[in-house]
Amino acid sequence: MDEELVVLAQRGDRQAFESLTLAHYTRLYRVAKSILRERYMAEDATQEALLDIWRYIRRLRDPSRFNGWSYRLLVHACYAEAKRGAPRVGEVEPLSEDIASTADEYRSVMDRDQLDRAFRRMSLDYRTVIVLRHLIGMTPEEVAEVLSVPRQTVYSRLRRAEASLQSALEADARPPSTSATRLEVVG
């Protein structure tokens, strides 16, 4: 079905493109949010990617490759958004109505928070390769195609990204040093 919509959109059919947008917006936004870690930046990057998809859809030679091609445009939009800098509006994520009530739920929230902090510390290149490989489930070859880099570069970035993530998680798990926070009382 997507291929038919892509072909129609390539011919200028706005309704077909709207259907493609509705079908793929959530997946594109999810990837952008995972890479950029900021809601407003992810929204902007996703919108920019959708504009680029509309602008360049006629250049897509093989409609069956739409997903990978759209990821490539999205990654470029994410990098452009990251270069613009920090989000322009403060972001406050709404709390879930059902607050964690058990120890397991509380631990899960803490784990997600710790993982999010570690992920934010990673470079954009590392976050991107982790998201494409592990969240989306692309093969290293597909990641290489989306990023326009050699396959070995993907393997290298994955190793470094995973090591960086592990180091950040271990650093968060260590208790803070008491000597650095000790205050002297002068009397």
Walkthrough of the structure:
With 187 residues, this protein is an all-alpha fold. It has 2 domains: 1-85, RNA polymerase sigma factor, region 2, helix turn helix motif (Rna Polymerase Sigma Factor, Chain: A), CATH 1.10.1740.10; 103-174, Arc Repressor Mutant, subunit A, CATH 1.10.10.10. It has 9 helices and no strands. It has helices at residues 2-10, 14-36, 39-56, 66-84, 103-121, 124-135, 140-147, 151-173, 178-181. Helix 7 crosses helix 8. Mean pLDDT is 84; it is low at 89-101.
Rg over C-alpha atoms, rounded to the nearest angstrom:
20 Å
Q: Major beta sheet, specifics?
A: none
Q: What's the mean pLDDT score? A: 84
**CATH architecture call of the largest domain:** Orthogonal Bundle
Give the tags:
single chain; 187 residues; mainly alpha; Rna Polymerase Sigma Factor, Chain: A; Arc Repressor Mutant, subunit A; 9 helices; elongated
Quick recap:
With 187 residues, the chain is mainly alpha-helical. The chain has helices at 2-10, 14-36, 39-56, 66-84, 103-121, 124-135, 140-147, 151-173, 178-181.
Could you outline the blueprint of secondary structure elements for this entry?
Layout: H1 2-10, H2 14-36, H3 39-56, H4 66-84, H5 103-121, H6 124-135, H7 140-147, H8 151-173, H9 178-181
